[in-house]
Design brief:
This protein is of the alpha/beta class. The protein is about 65% helix and about 10% strand. The chain is elongated. The mean pLDDT is about 85. The structure holds adenosine-5'-triphosphate. Adenosine-5'-triphosphate binds near residues 353, 371, 373, 375 and 377. Adenosine-5'-triphosphate binds next to helix 12. InterPro entries: AAA+_ATPase (IPR003593), ABC1_TM_dom (IPR011527), ABC1_TM_sf (IPR036640), ABC_transporter-like_ATP-bd (IPR003439), ABC_transporter-like_CS (IPR017871), P-loop_NTPase (IPR027417), Type_1_exporter (IPR039421). GO terms for molecular function: ABC-type transporter activity; ATP binding; ATP hydrolysis activity. It is found in: Cell membrane. It is a multi-pass membrane protein.
Length: about 575
């Protein structure tokens, strides 16, 4: 529990006034909850002793009516304030979590699956919020009810009767405690299985088109069902465990009632207790039941929250390897970028993917990168986005190590069109403007024209305002590519990277886009990764990448004079046409 308070201490400190008001209201509700039994006992004794007058009757009826009404109002205030507090905490935790996710580098996303990250942002944060808010009610309300009730029972009613009937309750509590400890292990396991299920459901939803194309629905459904079944199984195990052991407390409680009744009657016979006081006493035993059970629920919530906090912390404690130096410099434009013996190995791979890469890019140049599939072309150009740190070697921008520049500034230099196009559930124009939300209508139109996307927009039912579904459901492969190119171009970046981004367009469209780049970006740098040589043949320099190394570089004509991979592939492509 201290663990939880430590973790959300910052929130309690910030909201201390609301917590104080809640605490006061809670104690008032508590006292009001105990008063009816007290007045009822007194009223019974008044009746038994034949002392009932009209005045007393009105008083007792009035008090017994007034108490629930006041309690209702207090509970309303409490629930309202608590609801607000819970929403605020959930919002702040999620905001911190999401901001942290934005700070993380790609290595982090290699380590954690989407489903896992979603589960941590939903179920786990929910657990923490519930614990942080209901802990107050659960502990303060229930513990004070127990203390007040036992206090009144032993001081104002009968000490020995209290000792006889209430001391059995710690046995019940110990039983609940043991159950709780064992359950914690199952809860942890369940949370892991839940994350796996979330991941599987996500994969199935995202992969619908491919699954259908390969008639894999049944197979996948079976796997998804297995994941769901595993989740339900681990959850039902917890429920079964609770069902077996929780009723044990009822037995203990039954014994407590019987003891109170038997010994209460004995004390009445011996004139040590009145009937009214025994009624109050037994009512208080009844009132003790719910707080004791609730305390165990609170402990369950604490359990869940502790595991959830651990899982939340695991993410929040991750530190990105790619981050700004304290002395990071700004950069707005560049003249030369130099790769100096750059080697890169993916975090969970054994071998480097690109090895000893050295070359220079000058402002205004167009660079082509070609090579067999899997040679490391994408990995090489992504180094310019500062997504990872090089394993060895360095990249310099105007003779300063890229690591010494602000990451955001370096990324602002680049307009990157990746192989996979991420489109958002927004209209076409908003999707493009994500590249530069401040762009004018003219700049937007220019980007659309340069990407040769205008002709398609005319066919979309609402033009640039046509909604694009998740993952670009309403657009063709080539249209998605060109929307992504327009997104990069609207940024008017110093460096445009097209990572195999012309693969889904016809030869005419490819030629149009390349012509537009030549006309409009002669002062800026273009890096074109391609399998089709027509996309790179006019580049100032073409790098041939084989097995992660630059095997050759030069202009199209120079490379054709060599007897290497480029020439062989080029001849093959030309003869195939
Ligand atoms: N995130 C990753 N983690 C581990 N290995 C990766 C990762 N991404 C790519 N690789 C591996 O790195 C190698 C180079 O991949 P890369 O995508 O850079 O090649 P490429 O030349 O662009 O290929 P293609 O022409 O098919 O797009 C491949 O063997 C690939 O399996």
């Amino acid at each position: 529990m201290i663990h939880i308070f430590k973790k959300i201490g910052w929130f309690i400190k910030k909201e201390w006034l609301t917590y104080l008001v809640l605490l006061t209201v809670l104690l008032a509700i508590n006292i009001l909850a105990l008063l009816p039994a007290l007045f009822l006992g007194q009223a019974i004794d008044v009746i038994v002793n034949n002392e009932l007058t009209m005045h007393k009757l009105i008083f007792y009826v009035g008090v017994l009516l007034l108490i629930p009404v006041t309690r209702y109002l207090m509970s309303y205030i409490y629930n309202y304030l608590m609801g607000k507090l819970a929403q605020k905490l959930a919002y702040e935790l999620r905001e911190k979590y999401l901001s942290h996710l934005f700070e993380m580098d790609l290595e982090f996303y290699e380590k954690y699956s989407k489903g896992d990250l979603i589960a941590r942002a939903t179920e786990h944060l929910e657990n923490i919020t519930v614990a942080a808010t209901s802990l107050l009610e659960g502990l303060v309300f229930n513990v004070s009810t127990i203390i007040l009730a036992i206090g009144i029972m032993s001081v104002s009613i009968h000490l020995r009767l209290t000792l006889i009937s209430v001391t059995i309750m710690p046995i019940g509590l110990t039983i609940l405690n043991l159950i709780r400890q064992k359950k914690r292990r199952y809860v942890k396991k369940h949370q892991e299985i839940y994350s796996q299920m979330a991941e599987k459901v996500l994969e199935t939803t995202e992969g619908q088109k491919t699954l259908r194309a390969y008639v894999e629905e049944d197979n996948d459904l079976e796997k998804t069902n297995d994941a769901i079944k595993a989740d339900i199984k681990s959850w039902s195990y917890i429920v079964k465990y609770e069902n077996w052991f929780n009723p044990l407390f009822e037995v203990v409680y039954g014994i407590s009632y019987s003891l109170a009744f038997v010994f209460g009657v004995y004390f009445i016979i011996n004139q040590q207790l009145t009937v009214g006081l025994l009624v109050t006493f037994i009512a208080y035993i009844g009132q003790l039941y719910s707080p004791i059970i609730s305390i165990s629920t609170v402990f369950t919530q604490i359990n869940n929250a502790v595991t959830s906090i651990d899982r939340y912390d695991e993410i929040m404690n991750e530190v990105p390897k790619v981050k700004n130096d304290e002395t990071a410099q700004n950069i707005i434009h560049f003249n030369t970028i130099t790769f100096d013996n750059v080697t890169y190995k993916y975090p969970f791979d054994k071998q480097p993917v690109i090895k000893d890469i050295s070359f220079s890019i000058k402002k205004g140049q167009t660079i082509g990168i070609v090579g067999p599939t899997g040679a490391g072309k994408s990995t090489l150009i992504r180094q310019l986005l500062r997504q990872f740190n090089t394993t060895s070697g360095n990249i310099y921008i105007d003779d300063v190590n890229i690591k010494q520049y602000r990451i955001e500034d370096v990324r602002k230099l680049v307009g990157y069109v990746p192989q996979e196009h991420t489109l958002f559930r927004k209209p076409v124009d908003k999707n493009i403007l994500m590249g530069n939300p401040m762009a004018s209508t003219l700049e937007l139109e220019r980007a659309i024209l340069m990407a040769d996307f205008r002709k398609d927009i005319n066919y979309l039912n609402q033009g640039v305002h046509t909604m694009v579904g998740e993952s670009g459901m309403t657009l063709s492969g080539g249209q998605k590519q060109r929307l992504s190119i327009a997104r990069a171009l609207v940024k008017n970046p110093d460096i445009l990277i097209l990572d195999d981004s012309l693969s889904a367009v016809d030869a005419k469209t490819e030629a149009n886009i390349l012509e537009q780049l030549r006309l409009n970006r002669s002062e800026q740098t273009n890096i074109i990764v391609a399998h089709r040589f027509s996309a790179v043949r006019d580049a100032d320099i073409i790098l041939v990448l084989e097995n992660g190394r630059i095997s050759s570089k030069g202009t199209h004509e120079e490379l054709l004079r060599e007897d290497g991979w480029y020439k062989k592939q080029y001849i093959q492509q030309v003869t195939m046409v």
